[in-house]
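In this supplementary section we document a worked example of the pipeline. Step one takes a protein sequence of length 315 as its only input; no multiple sequence alignment statistics are reported here. Step two produces a three-dimensional model, which step three serialises into structure tokens for compact storage. The input and output of this example are shown verbatim.
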Amino acid sequence: MTASSGSTSPQHAPALGRTHRLLGRLHVTGVFWYRCAYWGFTRLPSWTEWLIVPCFATFFFLALSRIRGALASNLDPVLGRADRLTRWRRSFLTMWAFAWCFAERYRRIAEPQRFRSIIDGEEHWRSVMASPGGVIVVTAHIGPWETAAQFGGSASQRRIHVVREKEIDPRAQDFIREILARTGGDYVTHFSGDDPTLSLVLADALRQGDVVALQSDRPRAGGRTVVAGLFGRPMPLPIGPAALARATGVPIVPVFNFREGRFLMRTVVRPAFHVARTTDRSADISAAVHHLATEIEWAIRQHPHQWFCFRKLWN
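The serialised model returned by step three reads:
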């Protein structure tokens, strides 16, 4: 049931087609929406979000039929098959959750002091940090996932390297770079695909005792994968985190963030594990990826409507 291969499928992001070519920067993946959200949610009073977020969540729910269908389809294995009305409700709840997470991502830039986080499983983090050497933090696109990837940096004095996916729109990518450079922080941000030697850079950072934060649920086009199981369905997952952990001998710590309410997040640290180092490298990596699949499935089951995968995964 498992196999390593080169993935030719793109990220689990909205599919691009004629609409994307027609709308350009006004497409849902275009830079217009990034700039609009950044301006609105960093400059307008926070109470305006109670007007803006419902309007935009409803607009995109009605306008983006392909994404609406993908969300409903992906939730079938999680919540069970349902009638059309229930499927629409599931899609709307997911877009609603995404809209709030998206808004609060920018609000956090303007007013970080307003946000609170409840930490579950902190003992797992203390355990790995008590040992010398680096740590790999893995997360998935669930809830306010970007802050989950940065948990290691806020909970320790070690340097943290955050690896982000590049945005689909090059202008949006430039805008994100600009924001990250402007906000600063104690993180080193890398973009996957920018540097062919990135894996070597990260391995060196881990050997120096740094923290590396990676996403474990979305294979890049051309990236190697292992077909694991998610809700009883085949799911290709990237081998990057497991391969890096095996090469450096550091532990992997799954960390997930869930939005629990206004300005409130719950960070869950799951037990750390090591990737085996036997004579069968492929089997070692495959076993680790399957372990990560169980962690991702667990996290999705906690808050199914905070699983942000906007492309249909299974027929």
